[in-house]
Amino acid sequence: MNEIVRLSDLAAVRVAVWGAGREGRAAIGELRRLGCDIVLVVDEIDDAARGLAAEHGLEVRGPADVGSSGVSFVVRSPGISRYRPEVAAWRAAGIRSSGLLSLWLAERDPETVIGVTGTKGKSTTTSLIAGILSAAGRGVHLAGNIGVPVTAVPAGSEVAVVEVSSYQASDCATSPCVGVLTALGEDHVSWHGSVGRYHADKLNLFAHPGLRAMVTSVGRDRLAALGVDVFVDGPWRLDGVLAVRDGDAPVDTGSVPAHVRRNLLLAANAAEAWSAGVRSAHVAAAVVGFEALPSRQRVVEVVDGVRWVDDLLASNPTGVAAALESFAGEGLILLMGGEDRGIDLSPLVADLVAATNIEAIVLMGGDDETLVRVLTVAPLPIVRIRGHDIDAAVRTAHGLARPGMTVSFSPGAPTPKALGDWESRSRVYAASIAALPH
Length: 438
Prior knowledge:
The chain is α/β, with parallel strands linked by helices.
């Protein structure tokens, strides 16, 4: 059981912040407000780290120097695994650590938080819950892994709908009042150490006092075996493309993809679990206002009758399966390739082989990369691109595509570190499409 530590417990304490990204910056801002003496910790002391340290007048150190820095607590950014040996060494020396979301959640009344996690579908479901509650006139704020630090949520907000990654969930010592689990596949094994620990860490979000309702489409027997048992059967259900609730008008969801309909159902039932009174008008407003989030099956452009889709966050088998479902009725070219995450790729291969509409898979990467090795021995229409040259992949797909087809960058693996993050890879993809002859 994780120890409950609140943000306010760190007031005026000497604290280290490990990580100089978005969440690290948010942690620095909040800890400065609390009067903390802050040490910035980074794996590599580069120009960006020096600039951040100079901006806030911080001392900057490497992880190996934390033990001698005089700090009593380390706030880790999500990308820093709690299973790194440095963290264990600090713990043995009496230096505790946690993530910003866990510290913030421990400070909140659970009744003001809805927490959403899952292998895929988190961001879409989180946004749909917020859309439904907003349409119902509730004061709602989006935060968490969706790209808004939780510290940006106003203290008096009525409800925060928080997307929680497995990294963030692993540290939690308290739970939101309503939990949503969208899917439970395999991912992030290199961070967690094993699939079993990945699942346990993700479900840790729902393992503490405060949780009173659990909404999920994952098999309950499977979750109960992992310690989750506070399930609710919401009033909303799907009947074909209709979202229906007894005594209310049905909502036509035919304008959104099938996987989004399932997320919408979770969202409607989660909103209802938080506060009874969700009606068809509120759900319909979320459907009408739905727009694909960045890099989640978002159409970039149509070029000569070919639809180009940015689905870069389909970085595991679950995400690619959703893409195959969404684009099942059309000729499909997939752009794939990325960094090895140590997961079982056999479900991905099975889904790709079973798909009857794949015209080609433009596969990026080196011969020694796991995804390349696994896909090239399968009976699939593979076209190889040596290295991770997105421009070459786009030009190759352009030469293969015919009007009416869809080209989707659904990589099946995360962005290689040398290429930056998924957002930078998305920008390169969009620029390559824009450069095609129209």
